[in-house]
Amino acid sequence: MRALRFFATRCLLAGALLLAAPAWAQLRAVPPVDAILAGQRANAFVHWAGSEPLNGLEVEVPEGWSLHAARGIRDGSMVTTDLRVTALGGHRYALEAEQPLRGSALLVLGLDIGEERGYRTMTLTPGPETVGGREEWTVYVSESPAGPKNPAFGLPEGSAPVALRRSQVPGIGRRDGYTVEFWIKTTGLNEVVLSTWDGDEERPYPLEVVIDPRGRVVLYRGRPGRHEALVSARPVPDGQWHHVAFVNDPSAGRARLLVNGLEADSLRIDDAEVVMNTMSLVLGGRPERPGVAPRRVFSGLLDELRLWNTARDPAALRRTMRVPMDAMPEGSLRLGFDEPLPPELLVAPPEREVRTASDLRFAFPVEAFEASVEGGIVTLTWQTKDRRAEAFRVERSADGRRFEAIGTVRAEERLSESADGAARFAHTVRPPSGQVLYYRIRQIPPEGAEEPEQVSGFLKLGLGSDEAPAAAIVGNSPNPFREHTTISYDLAQAGPVTLSVWDVSGTRVAVLVDETLPAGRHAYRFSADGLPSGVYFVRLETPGGNAVHKMALTR
Predict the structure, then answer these.
(1) Is residue 72 within 8 Å of 99, Cβ to Cβ?
(2) For 430-507, where are the E strands, in sequence order?
(3) DSSP letter assigned to residue 317
(4) Would you state the torsion angle of the CA atoms of residues 393, 454, 474, 402, taken in this order, to the nearest 10 degrees?
(5) What single DSSP character describes residue 175?
(6) What are the φ/ψ torsions at residue 317 (nearest 5 degrees)?
(7) 359: nearest Cα among 218, 246, 455, 216
(8) Closest CA to 217 of 261, 257, 172
(9) Which tens digits make up the pLDDT trace of 246-277?
(10) 545 forms bridges with which residues in the sheet?
(11) Which residues of 110-136 are buried (b: 16+ CB within 10 A; e: fewer)?
(12) H/E segment holding residue 410
């Protein structure tokens, strides 16, 4: 039995292939939660799991895209194998492994995203020696943000990492309570992001952050003969911005790694007496070690690096991670890279400029964007924690590319506000019937603010169709909900049905229904026991069609 699984990456090729009948692969796509920016580079992470070896794949990308690299990593190994990429014409590529990838393997596909906006479809087909149908899914490509771009840290090709004097940064020893947080955007693998270690196995060190060959964020700390690691559950070098934080909390006896505000891993802090090194904190690589070639330096961007002299609570981190900070508490340090790095902070001045334009946007995104229809009236609802937006412009399109404004909702017109600070908004409109239309929300910053407008992904909605869909999710009530909600869905005909719930990272958190049901309306009471607050996706799958619906859980 064999299967393919696509790791969901934030706003990238999100999906998962689950086991089906023997010798058959089935794609189960998860819709993107954010937008891939047009004209940028991105990685897709593809997991192959099967008893037979994988010799090759054929990938067809949308017009204007290109596939520039592919790598394979066998599960349980950190050894990367380059795959041969051959252009076949017609936007198709063949991927060949010199040695078959046996067992489970991770494939990393390097993509150049085209300028065409809207939903784009990619396909992946196993080689002719592998039984399995053509797999396809759709992702959303958004416009690149207009307006001024703030600087971020980025090393030009061939540049050396930048070392900061340890005496000028907060204490980061094992016994210190401290927090290191930053925003990162990259497609690089097996690179050092920041470090206090030169690679000497006999030297203790408090901190090293790397992107491993699988694309995971790994935070190492060690002493002679022992390394400790905290690892993210998902790859992050997908070309999108991610927030990474490490909290060392001796008073609680724990160290935590958080990615995008959520705890990814933790470990216990012991009471062993360890003399930590005093080497420089290096951005983009490791401290130099005489006679040893440096490890590959970081090729992405860093922004809003904050070193706190306290162990910050995860809730406090989430509240401030999207808030620009001009001032920090005494004894802490912020590097926003808006200005050149202070000379007194550096061991030696960099040979070249280490700041480059950044498209990082601090505004909280629009979430739980959904539509309901009653009597020909469309009601659009959404929520956000953004408190800087002056208004929200509702836009509509007939083709998903060219949008026009159809209404504006002021920030003070919020319907409600949840305990976690998310404000909910709504807008109603009577669209023409019998036409498929696309809707999106544009967040409008205050007048004079030097930041780009942020645009949501869009909803596709058709009214007046003569043919009922094979599967449709009516909705869930209540929404948002705190503990329980009832999910209603319609089936045009009897058949096998799978109803599942997914989180925003593309992880399936629950299978609610997996059986054969008759045609008609059905309902399932979903209990969110053990799940944190946030946006979730309900996915309804039938042989005749699939449907996806967003719902919001607020504790």
Answers:
(1) no
(2) 436-444, 454-455, 459-462, 471-477, 484-491, 495-503
(3) H
(4) 70
(5) T
(6) -60, -45
(7) 455
(8) 257
(9) 999 988 889 999 998 888 999 888 755 555 77
(10) 542
(11) bbebbeebbbbebbbbbbeebebeebe
(12) strand 403-410
Read off the tokens for 252.
Answer: 């609680």
Q: Which two tokens stand for residue 279?
A: 């080497």
Which residue matches tokens 């196995």? 201
Domain ranges of the chain: 2-142, 151-358, 363-465, 467-555
CA dihedral 399, 405, 410, 415 (to 10 degrees): -40
Q: Residues 468-478: pLDDT tens digits?
A: 577 888 888 88
Identity of residue 383: Q
94, 88 contact by CB (below 8 A):
yes
Summarize pLDDT for 440-487 with one digit per residue, the tens. 898 888 876 666 677 787 777 776 544 557 788 888 888 888 888 989
Gap between the Cα atoms of 508 and 185, Å rounded: 25
Please give the torsion angle defined by the CA atoms of residues 473, 474, 476 and 479, in that order, rounded to the nearest 10 degrees.
110
Tell me, letter by letter, the H, E, C secondary structure of 350-384.
CCCCCEEEECCCCCCCCEEEEEEEECCEEEEEEEE
List the structure tokens of 234. 């998902």
Pinpoint the alpha helices (H) of 380-516: none
- Asked if the domains 2-142 and 467-555 are classified in one and the same CATH topology, the answer is yes
- CATH no., domain 151-358: 2.60.120.200
Quote the pLDDT of residue 10.
Answer: 27
Q: What is the CA radius of gyration of the chain?
A: 24
CATH code of 2-142, in short, is 2.60.40.10
Q: What CATH topology corresponds to 467-555?
A: Immunoglobulin-like (2.60.40)
d(CA 188, CA 553): 34
The span from the CA of 502 to the CA of 383, in Å, is 19
- Give the DSSP letter of residue 201: T
State how far the Cα of 113 lies from the Cα of 63, in Å rounded to an integer. 10
- Give the list of residues 6+ apart from residue 226 with CB closer than 8 angstroms, or none: none
| The domain defined by 363-465 carries CATH number 2.60.40.2060 | yes
Partners of 42 in the β-ladder: 111
Q: Is the CA virtual torsion 510, 263, 184, 551 positive or negative?
A: positive
Tokens for 68?
């520039």
Which pLDDT does position 269 carry in this prediction? Answer: 81
